[in-house]
Write a structure and sequence with these properties.
The protein is mostly beta strands and 388 residues long. Strands 11, 12, 13, 14, 15, 16, 17, 18, 19, 20, 21 and 22 form a twelve-stranded antiparallel β-sheet that branches. A six-stranded mixed β-sheet has the order 2-10-9-4-7-6, with no helix packed on it. A hairpin with a 2-residue loop joins strand 17 and strand 18. The relative contact order is 0.10.
């Protein structure tokens, strides 16, 4: 009888251990934190990505994550971010689910179900708009096994001092080459090419105190900065091309991939390529005429570094761009092609060349007639960098 009772107690204890172990194994678990702007490192807490002090007008790109570290799904994962009136939220992004609420003081991310080891990445911009003590509250909730969640409160003091000025980089390109083709009016019906060389100066307006600071101002997931050609002096072929002083020639650099939010992913700031364009308003003097464009001349390029050493090309529209006098009168002259190479261009002149040409037909008859021609030739080599 005693042995039977002992066996029963042992079996009951084993069953309780199995039940307890199963319950422990099914406990939901997750971790949440922030990622630094300059790299993929994770902070242990969400508040690790919120600074203790900010200055009026300062922007912060917050990049965070929530990861299911348990072995059962987390259902209906919801993140709510709330800030006090000293701060404003904007530019919400996520790689799964959706921000159901995108208000200045509150955002609500509905991430859906996270399977074991899955995670959701999210970001938003935090802007300091009023002085005083500010609070950012992160609340994470989910359903999966027993209901659970987490709440963190971060404190920030917004200082009533002006933020440091945004950085502006001034790039001087000493030797650039442009090809411009004009047609019409006194120039005739065939395009006339002009090859011009000279200096260009460009300002790059970063969106923070450091060179490389950039923001996604158009909410397309890519950071960009504004640019402007501030000086241009090109001559050649009897023509001179400068900027129109009455209209700014502005442009933009936008990264092709956003691997470091808040930074321009372009050498020398980070690895990556970018698209770049300028809307150019110019004056060209040729044949005693002074001509201007009223419609912007957009030139575009994909660049691999800044300052760029690439070939900017004007995409010819359906109708060429007409040129006008400084008084606004049409001239009947149009620009049909424009290329501006900011890298090195090698000019090769071959004084003595020989060509064999054979023509046939018409007044020449049915048999090919050979012509041997001799003379000079000039070729331009457009290198894609700082050196030949």
């Amino acid at each position: 009888m005693k042995n039977a009772l002992s066996r029963t107690l042992v079996a009951l204890g084993t069953l309780l251990l199995l039940i307890s172990g199963t319950a422990l194994a099914q406990t939901p678990a997750f971790t949440a934190g922030s990622r630094g702007q300059a790299g993929p490192e994770k902070a242990a807490q969400l508040c690790g990505g919120i600074p203790q002090t900010m200055q009026m007008g300062q922007n912060l790109n917050f990049n965070g994550f929530i990861q299911n570290t348990g072995n059962i799904p987390l259902n209906n994962v919801v993140l709510t971010v709330t800030v006090t009136n000293q701060l404003v939220l904007s530019n919400y992004t996520t790689d799964r689910g959706a921000w159901a609420i995108q208000q200045p003081q509150q955002g609500r991310l509905e991430a859906g179900t996270l399977q074991p080891q899955e995670q959701v990445n999210f970001s938003f911009r935090l802007t300091a708009v009023a002085p005083g003590g500010a609070t950012t509250t992160f609340n994470i909730s989910f359903q999966g096994g027993p209901p659970g969640g987490q709440e963190e409160q971060c404190t920030t003091v917004v200082e009533d001092v002006p933020p440091p000025p945004n950085a502006v980089e001034h790039d001087v390109l000493e030797a650039t080459t442009a090809l411009v083709q004009l047609v019409g009016g006194p120039l005739g019906d065939e395009p006339v090419p002009f090859i011009l060389r000279g200096r260009a100066e460009i300002d790059v307006f970063f969106e923070g105190p450091q060179e490389g600071d950039a923001q996604d101002d158009d909410d397309n997931g890519l950071d960009e900065v504004e640019t402007e050609i501030v000086a241009l002096s090109l001559t050649g072929g009897g023509a001179t091309l400068t900027l129109n002083p009455r209209q700014a020639s502005r442009g933009q650099i936008e990264e092709l991939e956003n691997n470091h939010p808040g930074w321009l992913d372009l050498d020398p700031f980070h690895d990556g390529d970018a698209s770049s364009f300028f809307d150019v308003f110019f004056e060209i003097e040729v044949g005693g005429l002074r001509l201007q464009n009223q419609e912007e001349l957009r030139i575009e390029a994909t660049i691999r570094e800044k300052p760029p050493f690439e070939r900017y090309v004007h995409l010819i529209p359906a109708n060429p761009i007409e040129l006008f006098t400084p008084q606004g009168a049409p001239t009947g002259i149009f620009i049909v092609k424009a290329i501006h190479n900011t890298g090195i261009v090698e000019v090769d002149i071959m004084e003595q060349t020989t060509a064999l040409v054979q023509l046939v037909g018409g007044p020449l008859g049915n048999q090919p007639v050979p012509f041997i021609l001799r003379g000079s030739a000039e070729a331009h080599v457009f290198f894609e960098g700082r050196q030949e």
